[in-house]
Design brief:
By secondary structure, the chain is an alpha/beta fold. The protein folds into 2 domains: 282 residues, Aldehyde Dehydrogenase, Chain A, domain 1 (3-Layer(aba) Sandwich), CATH 3.40.605; 189 residues, Aldehyde Dehydrogenase, Chain A, domain 2, CATH 3.40.309. Helix content is 41%, strand content 20%. The strands form 6 sheets. A 7-stranded mixed beta sheet has the order 15-16-17-14-13-19-20, with helices on both faces. The chain has a 6-stranded mixed beta sheet with strand order 10-9-8-11-12-22, with helices on both faces. Strand 2 and strand 3 form a beta hairpin. The longest helix is centred in the N-terminal third of the chain and has 25 residues. It is globular, with a radius of gyration of 23 Å. The relative contact order is 0.13. Keywords: Oxidoreductase. InterPro entries: Ald_DH/histidinol_DH, Ald_DH_C, Ald_DH_CS_GLU, Ald_DH_N, Aldehyde_DH_dom. Belongs to the aldehyde dehydrogenase family. This is Aldehyde dehydrogenase.
């Protein structure tokens, strides 16, 4: 039996076209321009959407505000809202292959990785909040410090403007939709124009689950659409995932109107490899996966690998060999482990950073050669002899490039890991898990994985210190982020 040609799989999945904007439970006509979404692997069209106009944003916000006041939503209990999320998960799971294919095609995520990293993570978030909805306390009664009784109620913030990135659209949408809906909020989602198709298809799942019209509305657009949503007087809170530069602008706009915002921004995460590490295949594979997953395009990518000087050559050599074994190619091919980056501009920026690092004294220790065409590919790259002050060690690349930084003792490793403008995530690798935990507790980051490249748990808070953002997603903390406490003294 011969394996199928990836092109055959593409032919079996025709272009998906979504005309108009999704407002009040239906695709409404729009005067906006049509946007053709192209595959970063083949540069061929994979679907189309309509770019929202300012009038479309107004209509979407109005629908969300009306839904907030509707009996269909306002009177629904948190338990029922959780059950609705369970139905969304059921409907998504039934179509998981279709969603995985579509997201893989539009943003280049390797199809095998997309099954978990794109679709499976969204399912995990929805299932988690289905359970949390039944457990969360929205009201408690306590004794007043002055005598008598106080009731503290948790009320929904209101209409949420949620702005999504392109690298993991379904997962980040679930991280915002699930806790916001449990809290009783309504939403206007703005997907990235680089990867809007999976979010557009999500509307069919929401409808199948029985979501009332207007609770979730979708407007696709570029920066101008995001700016219109952020500045809209009818939006009570912005939840943004994206670059630190954009997050700073959004935070300033929200602050001017004293409106709430949560910002999950960039990262330049470190993986500290302690001297006692057992350098088996699982460890090396995990370290490399922490950089190369989703073609290096994940916010928690642990691209700074801190290596003890006593074992530097050994560990760097093992990392280079593992990176060279990765299969680079068409994301539709099940054998592919690394696909293209999102655009020509991203590829050129990554290549320029690598060249500048080499000119500054770094060494490429992985193979150098041709990449597949015609898409925007970058070979998995490991750079040795990198100084933590080099731009490549300080700026988020969003590509399959690891830098190996030498340290002499644990104190220096911790100092290097913390010496960053960012503080999103990290990992500590050691044969002694208790020692690793002690080192992890010294890091100024939002989450740390021990002997793993996955510093995220669906039921726990996720977010960053410093310029990695404000607020948290995940766990009951994310529900609280969409609520306003109200105190009634009686």
């Amino acid at each position: 039996m011969t394996s199928a040609d990836p092109s055959d799989e593409r032919e079996a999945n025709p272009m998906r076209d979504f005309p108009g904007v999704y407002v009040n439970g239906r695709w409404a006509p729009s005067q906006g321009d049509r946007l053709v979404v192209t595959s970063p692997a083949t540069l061929e069209p994979v679907g189309s959407v309509t770019l929202a106009t300012p009038a479309d944003v107004d209509a979407a916000v109005a629908a969300a505000r009306a839904a907030m006041a509707s009996d269909a939503w306002a009177a629904m209990s948190s338990v029922d809202r959780g059950a609705l999320l369970g139905r969304v998960a059921d409907a998504l799971e039934k179509r998981s292959v279709e969603f995985g294919d579509l997201v893989s095609a539009e943003m280049g995520s390797p199809r095998k990785w997309a099954s978990f990293g794109q679709v499976g993570t969204a399912l995990g978030v929805l299932r988690t909040y289905e359970k949390l909805a039944a457990e969360y306390e929205f009201e408690d009664t306590r004794r007043s410090a002055m005598g008598g009784e106080v009731v503290v109620r948790q009320l929904p913030v209101g209409v949420i403007g949620a702005i999504l990135p392109w690298n993991a659209p379904l997962f980040t949408a679930a991280l915002k939709i699930a806790p916001a809906l449990v809290a009783g909020c309504t939403m206007v989602l703005k997907p990235s124009p680089e990867a809007p198709l999976g979010i557009a298809l999500l509307t069919e799942v929401l409808e199948e689950a029985g979501l009332p019209p207007g609770v979730v509305n979708i407007v696709v657009g570029e920066a101008a659409t995001g700016e219109a949503l952020v500045a809209h007087a009818g939006v009570d809170k912005i939840s943004f995932t994206g670059s630190t530069a954009a997050g700073k602008r959004i935070g300033a706009v929200c602050a001017a109107d004293v409106r709430r915002c949560s910002l999950e921004l960039g990262g330049k995460s470190a993986a500290i490899v302690l001297e006692d590490i057992e350098l088996d295949r699982a460890t090396v594979t995990g370290l490399v996966a922490g950089v190369m997953a989703n073609n290096g395009q994940v916010c928690v990518a642990q691209t700074r690998i801190l290596v003890p000087g006593s074992r530097y050559d050994e560990i760097v050599g093992a990392l280079a060999e593992a990176a060279d074994r990765l299969v680079v190619g068409d994301p539709c091919d099940p054998a592919t482990q690394v696909g293209p980056v999102i655009s020509a501009g991203a590829r050129d920026r990554i290549d320029a950073h690598v060249r500048a690092a080499v000119e500054g004294g770094a060494r490429i220790v992985t193979q150098v050669g041709d990449t597949p065409g015609p898409g925007w590919y970058v070979r998995p790259t490991v750079l040795a002899d990198v100084d933590n002050d080099m731009p490549i060690a300080r700026q988020e690349l969003f590509g399959p490039v690891a830098v190996a930084i030498r340290y002499h003792d644990v104190d220096e490793a911790v100092a290097l890991a913390n010496d960053s403008d960012y503080g999103l995530a990290a990992a500590v690798w050691s044969a002694d898990r208790d020692h690793a935990f002690d080192v992890a507790s010294r890091l100024r980051v939002g989450s740390v994985a021990v002997n793993s490249s996955a510093p995220l748990d669906f039921g726990s808070p996720f977010g960053g210190f410093k310029q990695s953002g404000t607020g948290r997603e995940g766990g009951p903390e994310a529900i609280a982020a969409f609520l306003e406490p109200q105190t009634i003294i009686r």
